[in-house]
């Protein structure tokens, strides 16, 4: 069965972006030891134009072949005229307002995210499924998230968009890996704990 992984950057206090959705405050922490390590391990998580810019345009997908995005995650690229940000992946955007025919390479759906993920997980072939963001979608998909990979940056935001927007229902995860970088960035990997 395919696995759903929420791989996302966050502050120490658990925010993935500023209240307005900006996440440029993470940029100073993208150091010489950090970016190449992430590019090597997760090349498919870079948008297609960025892959070309850093010289990995032809790198094979290692972990994921499908990316899931909420409208808020998809909008910044759309505002820049990028309708297919991850052309090297199967792209699914959850939105009730976007035109489903916006780009033939992007599946825009208003279907229940849980139903979509459960169907994707049953597909026999393929790599993993990457939940790119955001908080609303992550909250809805929390029951199906198998793995969390948190790129934790050594900064406290105070407020902003949280990792999840969901009701109070504690779910246990087990830390399976951690890696620390020059500026104090930590990449933490968690697997859903056995129930």
Automatic annotation (TrEMBL):
**Highest taxon listed in the record's lineage:** Bacteria
Cross-referenced InterPro entries, in alphabetical order? DHFR-like_dom_sf, RibDG_C, Riboflavin_Biosynth_HTPR
Its recorded name reads Deaminase/reductase
Q: What molecular functions are annotated in GO for this chain? A: 5-amino-6-(5-phosphoribosylamino)uracil reductase activity
> What is the organism of origin for this protein?
Streptomyces rubellomurinus (strain ATCC 31215)
The record, for PANTHER family, names: 2,5-DIAMINO-6-RIBOSYLAMINO-4(3H)-PYRIMIDINONE 5'-PHOSPHATE REDUCTASE, DIHYDROFOLATE REDUCTASE FAMILY PROTEIN (AFU_ORTHOLOGUE AFUA_8G06820)
Question: Could you state one GO biological process linked to this protein?
Answer: riboflavin biosynthetic process
Q: Boundaries of each Bacterial bifunctional deaminase-reductase C-terminal domain copy?
A: 3-186
* Pfam families with a match to the protein in the record: RibD_C (PF01872)
The record's annotation in SUPFAM superfamilies points to: Dihydrofolate reductase-like
């Amino acid at each position: 069965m395919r696995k759903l992984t929420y791989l996302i950057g966050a502050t120490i206090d658990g925010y993935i972006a500023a209240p307005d959705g900006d996440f440029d405050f993470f940029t100073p922490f993208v150091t010489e030891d950090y970016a190449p390590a992430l590019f090597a391990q997760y090349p498919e998580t870079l948008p297609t134009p960025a892959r070309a810019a850093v010289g990995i345009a032809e790198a094979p997908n290692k972990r994921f072949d499908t990316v899931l995005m909420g409208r808020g995650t998809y909008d910044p690229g759309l505002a820049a005229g990028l309708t297919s940000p991850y052309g090297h992946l199967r792209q699914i955007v959850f939105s009730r307002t976007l035109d489903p025919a916006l780009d033939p390479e992007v599946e825009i759906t208003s279907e229940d995210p849980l139903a979509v993920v459960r169907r994707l997980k049953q597909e026999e072939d393929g790599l993993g499924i990457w939940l790119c963001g955001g908080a609303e979608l992550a909250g809805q998909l929390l029951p199906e998230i198998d793995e969390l990979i948190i790129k934790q940056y050594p900064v406290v935001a105070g407020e902003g968009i949280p990792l999840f927007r969901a009701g109070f229902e504690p779910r246990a995860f087990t830390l399976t890996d951690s890696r620390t970088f020059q500026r104090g960035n930590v990449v933490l990997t968690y697997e859903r704990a056995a129930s």
